[in-house]
Amino acid sequence: xxxxxxxxxxxTTLSGSGVAVGVxxxxxxxxxxxxxxxxxxGVGDACATWLxxxxxxxxxxxxxxxxxxxxxxxxxxxxxxxxxxxxxERRFTVPESSRPSDAPLSRALALSADALAxxxxxxxxDFDGTLSTIVHDPFMAGLVDGADGALEALxxxxxxxxIVTGRMPLDARRLVGVPGVLIVxxxxxxxxxxxxxxxxxxxDADAVGHALDEALARVPPMPGVVPDHKGVSASxxxxxxxxxxxxxxxxxxSLGDLEPLGLRxxxxxxxxxxxxxxxxxKGTAARAIVARFGLRGALVMGDDTTxxxxxxxxxxxxxxxxxxxxxxxxxxxxxDVLPEVAAAADVVLDTPADAAELLARLSE
Length: 364
Ligand SMILES: [Mg+2]
Description:
Elements: E1 6-13, E2 16-23, H1 28-40, H2 45-57, E3 71-77, H3 80-89, H4 103-116, E4 121-125, H5 147-157, E5 160-164, H6 169-176, E6 182-185, E7 190-192, H7 205-217, E8 226-229, E9 233-237, H8 244-255, E10 264-268, E11 271-275, H9 282-292, E12 297-302, H10 307-320, E13 324-330, H11 339-344, E14 347-349, H12 352-363
Parallel strand pairs: 4-5, 4-12, 5-6, 12-13, 13-14
Antiparallel strand pairs: 1-2, 1-3, 6-7, 8-9, 9-11, 10-11
Helix pairs in contact: 1-2, 4-12, 5-12, 9-10
This protein binds magnesium ion.
Magnesium ion binds next to loops.
């Protein structure tokens, strides 16, 4: 029997994981055939049932898996050592390698479920690039499929669901479109409670607004460069520029030194961010949310450098023992996560769709 026709299947549930080895081509159909083979190898009826449920409940993308359903983690060619192990030891072993795009979701689910079990608990999440795919036109962003229902269910169950975003609060509320959600916009400086029609403005907002006027006036019109004055912060998007890197350099050159204006430049994904550091950031927002709702557990999600403030603040609270937390970084459309963001997270998910899947599983 050629070993390239022998595959191992790894499956996991909330309560455990394991691997089965058999003949196939790595496809779901190959897996179906191995439900029988798993029994023939003596790995037991439990395995056959496990894998059978997996085929029906998890690999069919149109179905809605239950929290108890197993997740098929990988289908990889088995090594002769693994085959021997399956035959000789008649037991499951967890392989050293599994498909990296699926394993983090399982880990994120376990960490998040643990954190949210420490009540009262809350979800603090970024929007763009985390629950929304980054799009060409930043004003056309929207939640990825499935995120709205999950957010709504979690908002009813948790002490707080907060969207902590660089966007203006009313803009974020419009794009999220889910009731019962706290919006903390403008990088944590403007709060919009679910029952509020206008956000609470930060102190010194007028002075910062004027400083931002002055900063943005320094940037000449450029093709594909879109400035966005958000009252107490500003974003300059250059994703649509013919040469984004050239546009970024031109933007920075024209802005010059902003320290005398009390402003600081930051960098996001195809965005130059201008903020007033004295007004706070996503980190101060995270601390304020934890304090306001008396949280003992939190799931925090983000994708970009501005989310690092939130990650760091929550990690510090976790370090004191006052908060149980899961810190999840999310890759964008390009599955790309900045190294410093990944390093600050407990687990990195590939895409916003994975983040929505995580929330959907947690909301069941
Ligand atoms: Mg983001």
